[in-house]
Amino acid sequence: MTTTESELGAQLRTARAALKSLGAVGDHYARLLLGPDDPYPIYARMRRRGPLQVSRLGSFVVVSHDLADKVLRDRRLGLRRTDGERPVRGFSDFDNSLLGLDPPDHTRLRALAAPSFSPRAIAGFRADVERACDSLLDKVTAGGFDLMRDYASHIPVAVIGDLFGIPEEHRPRFNHLAAGLSLVLDGVVSLEEATRLQEAVTGMRELFTELLALRRTEPGADFVSGMLGPLGDDKLTADELVAMCGMLALAGTETTVNLIGNGTLALLEHPDQWAALRADPDLAPRAVEETLRYDASVLMQTRVAHEDLELMGKRVPADTQVVLLTGACNRDPDAFPDPDRFDITREPGASHISFSSGIHYCLGAPLARLEGDVALRRLVSRFPGLRRTGPVVRRSSPFIRGLRALPVAG
């Protein structure tokens, strides 16, 4: 074992020990950072302590839907510190993307990308999503398959590949890199994973740099080609476009994979809801929304105070992190009646915050909704008798709520 491996292992063990110690003395946020299989009982205990709590780690933690929505819309909070740096240094290749910037750069980049992700533009991908789902389901048998491995994990990758116009010969490379990027969401726990993640970041940057060069000579009807105009008008740099593509590839694949997996599992665990969807596949969009509320793919959202401010009577100093527990806020009984009940016929009410809110509302929300809608429709139509046939394997992550395996048969 090298010194580097030894040092990293020691750092990880020390960090986990510290979190366990804090959790043992009642710091629920520290317990959540250990990635429990089921965070919802912890959320319930936190909620009893009030809508806003202060962790011994220094973060202010929000478990109230109303307060979370206000924080997400408050321009006094953003993604970067007052010195312009990220609170936790990420991979510099992608730090200048939409997911890492505050206004005015965020405003400029979002305005350039938004037309490609409008509901009208995304609706044009429905036939592509349907073909992808049908092709995948044609390859599985009713006797048994793994929903994550054989279905959910492939749909967003195929659609994002079409959106960006990635040539077919580069799709396997893109798929491999996208899988490597997902480690940033699970949390790196070994030198091997850290190395693979950095290789994925570097590889994705190289892939999109090559794609940009190709589209400059052979433009098409894809996102990268559509951004050549602003690039030529000096409204956008090549580095910014490459970073934007890399982060959209990550955000647009992982979260949707887990939306499909979490939604299918919730439906199968509530047979009456699966029966309702089977009887009326047009309930699929409502099933998507209820999944996003009931079992959100992204468990935490973080903002940083740009100035000294007050929340719920508590002083929040500038540069302090405010962490919004998405899963807790989406099951807040003050916002959602009977919040622990999964009900795809739930009457419209408060909006979940799984796509965030305010100026950082998820740009890809229309695409995720479309993919979830089509994936569930096709699944219930092709396998109306679908049932779980083995144990579920969950991802161990404090940030992402998802599955690694969901064995089913139909």
Keywords:
single chain, 410 residues, alpha+beta, five-stranded mixed beta sheet, three-stranded antiparallel beta sheet, 19 helices, 52% helix
Describe the fold and architecture.
By secondary structure, this protein is α+β, with helices and mostly antiparallel strands. Helices cover 52% and strands 9% of the residues. It has 19 helices and 12 strands. The chain has helices at 3-24, 28-32, 40-47, 65-73, 105-113, 119-123, 126-138, 147-152, 155-164, 171-181, 183-186, 191-217, 223-226, 228-232, 238-269, 271-279, 284-294, 326-329, 365-382, and strands spanning 52-54, 60-62, 77-78, 145-146, 300-305, 309-311, 314-316, 321-325, 387-388, 393-394, 403-405, 407-409. The strands form 4 sheets. Strands 1-2-8-5-3 form a 5-stranded mixed β-sheet. The chain has a 3-stranded antiparallel β-sheet with strand order 4-12-9. A two-stranded antiparallel sheet has the order 6-7. Strand 6 (309-311) and strand 7 (314-316) form a beta hairpin. Helix 7 crosses helix 9 (155-164), helix 7 (126-138) runs parallel beside helix 19 (365-382) and helix 9 (155-164) packs antiparallel against helix 15 (238-269). The longest helix is centred in the middle third of the chain and has 32 residues, at 238-269. The protein starts with a helix and ends with a strand.
